């Protein structure tokens, strides 16, 4: 890993840099990290990519370093924007609260607890993958959440199997190894391929 890796709150990144991370093609350019942001009545397929991109710019407050809140982190390698990590209070993800069962299966959790934060996406641009960027982003997310008063931080990574290829569409939630390296522990396993991991502060 280059020593010239910098990770900043997304409001300290320009909107152009944020756009460069998500790109113009592929899954990231279609999603713009809105899958867990949309409420149940807001069907994902009904929102064009342009609207999703607009929403992410508003959520991150990109280009506004004075903003008090933001929706994630942006990674730079040698000054080039290369990675993204979505990290916010868990209550900021309507879809996560009401649509997806992963965080709640077999757990007695208060869904309205603002002090529990969540990492919902860890993404690295093509051409920069395989350099440990996800590890650095999740470690930075831990520090980011703690500094902003979180009581705990959760992630919902995939369990990868040796020899089995996982697409980037699936792995946007991160892998178990990445979260373990940042100090998370498993708290539940809602399915064979997904775990809930958590670090308490």
Overview of the molecule:
- With 201 residues, the chain is an alpha+beta fold.
- It has a single domain, classed as Gcn5-related N-acetyltransferase (GNAT) (Aminopeptidase, 3-Layer(aba) Sandwich), CATH 3.40.630.30.
- The protein is 26% helix and 24% strand.
- The protein contains six helices and seven strands.
- It has helices at 15-22, 26-31, 49-60, 94-98, 133-147, 176-181; strands spanning 5-9, 72-77, 80-89, 116-124, 152-155, 185-191, 194-200.
- Strands 1-2-3-4-5-7-6 form a seven-stranded mixed beta sheet, sandwiched between helices.
- The longest helix has 15 residues, at 133-147.
- It is globular, with a radius of gyration of 16 Å.
Keywords:
alpha+beta; Aminopeptidase; 7-stranded mixed beta sheet
| Main beta-sheet strand count, sense and barrel state | 7 strands, mixed
Runs in which pLDDT lies below 50 for 5 or more consecutive residues are none
Q: Would you identify the CATH architecture?
A: 3-Layer(aba) Sandwich
Distance between the termini: 27 Å
| Widest β-sheet, arrangement of strands | 1-2-3-4-5-7-6
Q: Which structural class matches the secondary elements? A: alpha+beta
Q: What is the beta-strand fraction?
A: 15-25%
What's the overall average pLDDT, rounded?
90
**Structural domain tally:** 1
